[in-house]
Design a protein that fits this description.
354 residues; Serine Threonine Protein Phosphatase 5, Tetratricopeptide repeat; signal; TPR_rpt; Tetratricopeptide repeat protein; TPR-like_helical_dom_sf
Length: 354
């Protein structure tokens, strides 16, 4: 499987026009994996896939560059197969738990395909079914976590917080330290989106401690929570302290052969805001090159990164280069389908980034 880009709400939050300490708009992609579900059985007409590949098999790069059409077509085909599987399961009088896992999978695949309404409907159905099954606490917690992240991106913060807290309670009842830490990580991201930086920092640090000690932790776990911590620190006007967790995350991504342009860009950003213009410029330039190659100049994350990079270039008096970047931004914005980007009630916060 091709290494996925670790793009999440966190990154677009930092890349907003806000200075450290100012209010931030919501970001873009969710970046939430089905890391801990027991999994639904794959329909008989498609191969079995592990839980790790159910969510994240299609990278954001696939959805934005030349692979996007075929990738989305594959996702839609998989959704159709799972919907057929639901019909068959209902005819066979499948249990609520079995049906709930199928709806959960469709919800996640719909999110991957950027079908937000469809994702929300299926996740809500999964929650309803799994809530009736005493043995499905783990899957219910996963559903609530995914739904909470979706509602966070939609700026439905109260709903998101209720869902994430309920997921945490279920995982605490299961006494599973790894799953609890994943809820802490999700809550840290939510509090960051709400500009509650102290809470975000506290939950991120707790998650990092458990992830460091738990053998079941994934690279995704370790990298994303360090991004959250770094962003929370920098937006609390302590960008110098944000360097270490971001460096750790970027180094781990590269050690695992993950081309993570946004991580490099974030690291450059905090170097810049800490006064180190040399390292700031080096990392931001490297990050921009990867983002533009993998996501394309017109991708929302690339655009907000480009705006910050142009500001950096102007600050260091490389005006000609800044004008080139700004021209590319204008050209990309002229051809971008705003309706497709903002398809879900401003869920990615682009209106606030203009």
């Amino acid at each position: 499987m091709k290494p996925r880009l670790f793009i999440s709400l966190t990154f677009a939050l930092l890349l907003s026009p806000c200075a450290p300490g100012q209010t931030m708009p919501a970001g873009s992609e969710m970046g939430h994996g089905l890391r801990d579900t027991t999994g639904a059985s794959a329909p008989s007409s498609m191969p079995e896939k592990s839980d790790a590949t159910v969510h994240g098999a299609t990278s954001p790069a696939d959805m934005q560059n030349g692979n996007g059409v075929s990738a989305k077509r594959q996702l839609l085909h998989r959704i159709d197969l799972y919907e057929d599987a639901i019909k068959q399961a209902k005819d066979a009088h499948a249990s609520d738990a079995e049906l709930g896992r199928l709806y959960l999978t469709i919800g996640v695949l719909s999110d991957e395909a950027q079908l937000w309404d469809r994702a929300e409907i299926n996740l809500e159905q999964a929650r309803s079914l799994l809530a009736h099954s005493a043995e499905s606490s783990r899957d219910l917690a996963t559903t609530l976590g995914v739904l909470g992240t979706l509602h966070m991106v939609m700026r439905k913060f109260r709903q998101s917080e209720k869902e994430e807290e309920e997921a945490l309670r279920l995982r605490e009842n299961l006494r599973n330290p790894l799953l609890i830490a994943r809820s802490w990580s999700d809550l840290a991201t939510l509090y960051l989106a709400e500009n509650k930086f102290a809470k975000a920092k506290g939950f991120a640090e707790k998650a990092i401690a458990e992830f460091g000690a738990n053998a079941g932790t994934t690279v995704y776990d370790r990298i994303t929570v360090r991004y959250v911590l770094g962003v929370a620190l920098c937006m609390s006007k302590d960008c110098a302290s944000a360097i270490a967790p971001l460096e750790d995350a970027v180094h781990e991504a590269k050690a695992n052969l993950l081309q993570d342009g946004m991580g490099d860009f974030l690291l450059g950003y905090v170097f810049w805001k800490s006064g180190n213009l040399v390292e700031g410029g080096r990392h931001m330039e490297e990050g921009m090159d990867i983002l533009n190659e993998q996501l394309g100049v017109g991708n929302p994350s690339s655009l907000v990164a480009s705006r910050q990079y142009a500001k950096f270039l102007r600050e260091i008096r490389r005006v000609d280069e800044a004008e080139v970047v700004e021209r590319r931004i204008r050209q990309a914005e002229a051809v971008v389908d705003v309706h497709s980007i903002q398809a879900y009630r401003g869920g990615n916060g682009l209106a606030a980034l203009r």
